[in-house]
């Protein structure tokens, strides 16, 4: 019989600010909705104040509001969960196999995806730490933080208290890491062995944390999953003050009083922001959300330099084969003849380029149907390669690289898409029906095992994988996760430049739902 405990005095943990009560299920202690900070709109987060008695941590905390209503889409491939929202969203969750303060178990600090504009700590069903805590003996932490205009709207022109308003979403994450450093020992974790990791926007935030001096010392390892993009990829065409003034105008704030904007009710604030975004879009200008380099967040390391601390942090960086690449409708891909496969590649890239890409593809993906060369990602892969090469050449700590290349039995054969690796790395493939395909138990074990071993020791090698060496200057070593995993050296040197040269550049855009003609309503939450 599964063990369940939620008593008056157990499980109760003493944190720096006060006592928290969670529940125990099947050997795992679970604490949901722990408040790690408070913050006023546009301002830096502050630690929680002490309290008397015992607070319940039995329900997930609210998530950050998005600027649009979530639109379910592609739920088979990426299964979502939605939740009540508030801009006061500084909550985290903990799964732990032990509450012994001397246990010193590795801590995995998960940062959700959704760019800098959407998502939450529970947005995907596989963002659950139970299996990692129970099966892999680690402490798993997931975190909510401010997003979009709540986390990155630059109002620094309106007063010194708003100097870092463009980065308060990242400041929330730093405050959450401070909370972990101060309290995680009481949950059985090792505050000196914290691995930050995340996928997509979460992976991007991992790279940013390495460039924020206030975060240094609060984590010891880093994993970036499909999160390296060109500098200013989400950059805006609208000047910050111009945007703020338009929002104020829409809300009839005629005196330019920023405090009125800071106190505007959330629905009105979102409505006015979407009106402003639509206004500038009609002029051909885009408004996007991302951190802004300043004295707090120093720079994008691909644009300038890694911080000295980032170069001491063992790092793993990876992508998946197809990410957002559109899949060509070729019927049942496994049934195509060799001649049909070659024709599809040449139709995509041209006769001469197709011949070169086919030859390069067969060298690095010897067990994968050549037709998937038409799907190879060019959004995340090129800059991930640049990131790995630069860090491997400069860092004193090891840098590892991976690529998830599984082909799923979906839509006549679909190569690994954006987010498809998360269930395996989080030891949760069993939760998603789409993962229950060939060798899923093997991939579930070795992919989660690689991350856990990396978090535990800084070395991802695990039973069931071939030997995996770190990258060095001039030698990029890639673990290819597939139904049969293998290692390749410099696998992108010939193939990637060809694909980049001949494949149309991919522009990431969030489209409105087809039946939604109201631009003011925002855009669909797709992943």
Structure description:
It contains 13 helices and 19 strands. The chain has helices at about 130-135, 150, 170-185, 200-210, 240-250, 260, 265-280, 340-350, 350-365, 380-395, 420-425, 440-455, 490-500, and strands spanning about 5, 10-15, 20, 25, 30-35, 35-40, 45, 55, 90-95, 105-110, 140-145, 190-200, 220-225, 315-320, 400-405, 405-410, 415, 475-480, 485-490. Helix 8 packs across helix 9 (about 350-365). The two termini are about 35 Å apart. The protein is globular, with a radius of gyration of 23 Å. The protein has about 525 residues and is an alpha/beta fold. The strands form four sheets. A twelve-stranded mixed β-sheet has the order 1-4-5-9-11-10-12-13-14-15-18-19, with helices on both faces. A three-stranded mixed β-sheet has the order 2-3-8, with no helix packed on it.
Main-sheet strand order equals 1-4-5-9-11-10-12-13-14-15-18-19
Mean pLDDT: 93
Radius of gyration: 23 Å
Q: What is the number of strand segments?
A: 19
